[in-house]
Design brief:
- The chain is of the alpha+beta class.
- It has 3 domains: 136 residues, Adenine-n6-DNA-methyltransferase TaqI, Chain A, domain 2 (Alpha-Beta Complex), CATH 3.90.220.20; 94 residues, Helix Hairpins (Orthogonal Bundle), CATH 1.10.287; 145 residues, DNA methylase specificity domains (Adenine-n6-DNA-methyltransferase TaqI, Chain A, domain 2, Alpha-Beta Complex).
- It is 36% helix and 19% strand.
- The protein is built from 13 helices and 22 strands.
- A 5-stranded antiparallel beta sheet has the order 2-9-6-7-4.
- Helix 6 packs antiparallel against helix 12.
- The longest helix is centred in the middle third of the chain and has 40 residues.
């Protein structure tokens, strides 16, 4: 059946001024992650001052700012949370309490929520805009059966994600082992060229009907990316008439604003938006792009300390150019890159399982199109 969202859930509105200890348990938008409903990080390093929302353990937390990042979670404890988080409570005559977090984290919900975001710079989902939007829901009996299945799947997914973290830690340990003792260093700006990005005009739709991959920082993070991570495909004319540039393959794409510090090596030529710069010419100067990515990953805390800006915070290319790169022998870099590639092969199995479980999440959407039997068969 179809229900307007305010028949499915209510939104939390209680607020209070923070006390000293609230900083330890505070949940901000930065603590909600894509593809998980588990909130494993919380706390603020600075004292909380302004009035904030009151959350209770078990509340469903929906990241309403920049909904395209698809961040949700379940409140891990009583406390305060950011105003950029929408606190949702189920109306249990329509939606099962245990089913609501999976419904809110589904692509079905987010695809619709994104369309009802508003704001010129920072887009937010407003309750007044989404409360009357209708959604398909399975029956309560189906919801409870699906929730049982999804909680089991969620536990399995979290296990695979812990395995992925362990393999990343293995790579970090090997990086330290191989390169920590190198004292000779060179500035990144001396061994590369930095190319900026841009966004072709949205007023000309045909700019986005081409074959050139164009990405935002959402695509960054993995060691390697290709055209499959492209948000959109643009034309040569779009490149010529905007600030974006074609970044050659085997460059390091680095987030300087939204997603500061996220970076990947591009396996194919591609364009980026203004939040990303391309670090090029590395191989010509005796540096493996993946090695540079791993060096930059070690500077994540420093990049966060250097970000500046009134509304959208970021770092400048000058900060990036002054990053010190250990001048490791090229053969040593190649050995490290080969090690990472072997680790990536083992990671692929875990990543595939995480993706399959994500697919399971997204079979819960419409009761008219997806029965319980269809859900089980699709996910077997």
């Amino acid at each position: 059946m179809r229900y307007p969202f305010d028949d499915i859930a209510t939104v939390g509105k209680k607020r209070r001024k923070p006390e000293f200890d609230d900083a330890k348990t505070y949940v901000g938008l930065e603590h909600l992650e894509r593809d998980t409903i588990i909130v494993s990080r919380y706390g603020s390093k600075v004292p909380l001052k302004s009035t904030m929302q009151i959350m209770k353990r078990g509340d469903v937390l929906f990241g309403r700012r920049n909904a395209y990042l698809r961040r949700t979670g379940i409140a891990p404890h009583d406390g305060l949370c950011s105003a950029d988080i929408m606190i949702l409570h189920p109306k249990e005559d329509v939606i099962a309490k245990e089913f609501l977090p999976f419904f809110v984290s589904s692509d079905y919900f987010f695809d619709i929520a994104e369309r009802y975001s508003a704001g010129s710079i920072m887009q937010r989902v407003m309750w007044s805009r989404i409360k009357d939007v209708e959604f398909d829901l399975p029956s309560l009996a189906q919801q409870r059966k699906l929730a049982e299945l999804l909680w089991v799947a969620n536990d399995v997914r979290e296990t695979y994600k812990r395995l992925l973290v362990a393999t990343e830690n293995l790579v970090k340990s090997r990086f330290i082992e191989m390169f920590e003792s190198i004292t000779n260093k060179v500035l990144l700006g001396e061994i590369s060229k930095i190319r900026s990005g841009g966004t072709p005009s949205r007023l000309i739709p045909e700019y986005y009907e081409g074959i050139i991959p164009w990405i935002t920082t959402v695509a960054l993070g993995d060691n390697y990316i290709d055209d499959h991570q492209a948000m959109e495909l643009i034309t040569d004319k779009a490149v010529k008439n905007s600030a974006t540039q074609i970044i050659p393959e085997n460059s390091v794409l680095f987030g300087i604003r939204v997603g500061i510090g996220k970076c990947s090596v591009n396996m194919v030529p591609m364009c980026t938006n203004q939040d990303i710069v391309g670090i090029t010419e590395l191989i010509n100067n005796g540096f493996e792009p993946l090695y540079i990515k791993k060096v930059l990953d070690t500077y994540s805390v420093y990049f966060n300390e250097q970000k500046r800006g009134a509304t959208i915070k970021g770092i400048t290319t000058e900060v990036l150019k002054k990053i010190q790169i250990p001048q490791a022998p090229f053969e040593l870099q190649k050995r490290f890159v080969e090690f990472v590639r072997q680790v990536d092969k083992s990671k692929f199995i875990s990543q595939r399982q995480v993706m399959l479980i994500r697919f399971l999440y997204n079979t819960i959407c419409r009761s008219r199109e997806c029965s319980m039997n269809q859900t089980l068969s699709n996910c077997s």
